[in-house]
Amino acid sequence: MTAQVLYTSYGPCLLSSQPSVTSGTRTSAVTGVLSCQALLTPTTDTFTITWNTGQTSAVRANVQSSLIEGTTFVVLMTGTVPGGLFRGSTFTQTNTGTAGDLLNCLSGSGGLPGSYPATVLTIG
Known about the structure:
1 helix
């Protein structure tokens, strides 16, 4: 089974409590079948953000809603930071992107080659 690689880039970051943190990345390998419908199903996720300083934040997130509004695909995740930098903080991430490929995938007329949404992350 081939792993799908999920990559998220965060930045520029504006953190008054940690001014040296200016960007971060999240890379996850997911194995198993990823269906188009699964992208719209609420779920939980645990991952690590690696900051430009080399520090990390463990994140436990609930994918609360994934929906299509017209031609826009929106994913809202909320949760906590149980470990690492920002430990004890809350976490909110909103991804907003175009829904064209997802709509084609859901209708059976194509796959989902990739998704490149704009990401807004709030920790605090």
